[in-house]
Amino acid sequence: MGSPMPDAALTSDGAPKESAVLERLEEIEKQLGVIQTQTARSTVDWYKRILDTVQAFVVIGGVVVAVQQLIQVRKSSYQTAYDTVSKEWLQMDRYFVEKKDLRPYLPHRPRQRRCESWLDGALCWLGLK
């Protein structure tokens, strides 16, 4: 695995000195710490990038859905208002059709004039004839 111990780190009987072993272990631990930090950093970076990307897609999707819901609410609101006004208008028309004695109190439109040619029709439409 590692490099062999130098002769100065051995005792007279060939056994390694305790301080030399401790120093070598500390050196190996430092190297392992550097390796772990480098691999952990890259793993954490990729993990964070993936999470940020997923989170961005979720937020964008949420905004799109919210906008679509707002559009639907607006359409629904317009439709409801139109239906309500139409019903009231029909009730008023029905009331005035049934009550013929109220017709003199309603504003009358002037009769439309008959125009012979397209030029007369245009002049009539503009109110010039």
Question: In words, what does this structure look like?
Answer:
- The protein has one domain (7-106).
- It starts with 17 loop residues before the first helix and ends with a helix.
- The longest helix has 81 residues, at 18-98.
- It has 2 helices and no strands.
- Helices cover 70% and strands 0% of the residues.
- It has 129 residues and is mostly helical.
Q: What's the short story on this structure?
A:
The chain has 129 residues and is mostly helical. The chain is 70% helix and 0% strand.
What keywords describe this structure?
129 residues; mainly alpha; 2 helices; rod-shaped
Topology:
Layout: H1 18-98, H2 118-126
Principal-axes shape call: rod-shaped
User: How much beta, percentage-wise?
Assistant: under 5%
Order of helices and strands: HH
Give Rg in angstroms: 46 Å
Give a short account of the largest sheet: none
Number of domains: 1
Helix content: 55-70%
Low-confidence runs: none
Task: Give the total of beta strands.
Answer: 0
Termini separation comes to 111 Å
Number of alpha- plus pi-helical segments: 2
Structural class by sheet pairing and helices: mainly alpha
Quote the average pLDDT. Answer: 78
